[in-house]
Design a protein that fits this description.
three-stranded antiparallel sheet, 40% strand, OB fold (Dihydrolipoamide Acetyltransferase, E2P), globular, mainly beta, five-stranded mixed sheet
Length: 156
């Protein structure tokens, strides 16, 4: 098998004190931050919805979903729009608050090693933490995050 076939284009998504690493193919767009419309009764990690390309896009704080503080909004804050994969969300998309633009990286099994499978709440949308050269990003469980969203009163 060629080296190219074993590489995956991925994005390092900056959070407040961490980074996520996700396949490039699951991200539709990086949108500028717009203040979400919050619905009463929703969990604090569910920030609300924004209008994105004529759709109601639910927006979450990944830090909040981990039980951490919701980060402050700055001039660098963006929304990474993910393609939904479980058909749980009517819009087919959801947004995650990010603290800057994601960085495109190519990963393969030589640079990506398992670091930890715990260190966050059991119900957190995290599969594991990996070591990638000098980075230690989290691999999110996007399906679990979608199911968490589907259970919220805001349904896009």
């Amino acid at each position: 098998m060629s080296t190219e076939a074993e590489e995956l284009y991925s994005l390092l998504v900056p959070l407040n004190d961490d980074r996520l690493i996700v396949p490039r193919a699951c991200v539709a767009e990086v949108a500028r931050f717009t203040e979400p419309k919050h619905e009463d009764g929703a969990h604090n990690w569910m920030l609300g919805t924004i209008n994105w390309n004529g759709r109601e896009l639910p927006v979450v704080s990944f830090e909040g979903a981990l039980g951490r503080d919701i980060p402050a909004i700055t001039g660098r804050t963006r929304i990474v729009v993910f393609l939904a994969s479980t058909e749980q969300l009517k819009s087919g998309y959801f947004g995650v608050l990010t603290q800057g633009f994601p960085q495109l990286v190519r990963v393969n099994r030589d640079v990506l090693k398992l670091e930890a499978t715990d260190g966050w709440p059991d119900d957190a949308p995290v599969l594991c933490r990996v070591k990638m050269i000098n980075e230690f990003p989290l691999i999110p469980d996007l399906e679990k995050l979608e199911l968490m969203l589907a259970r919220e009163s805001i349904q896009a």
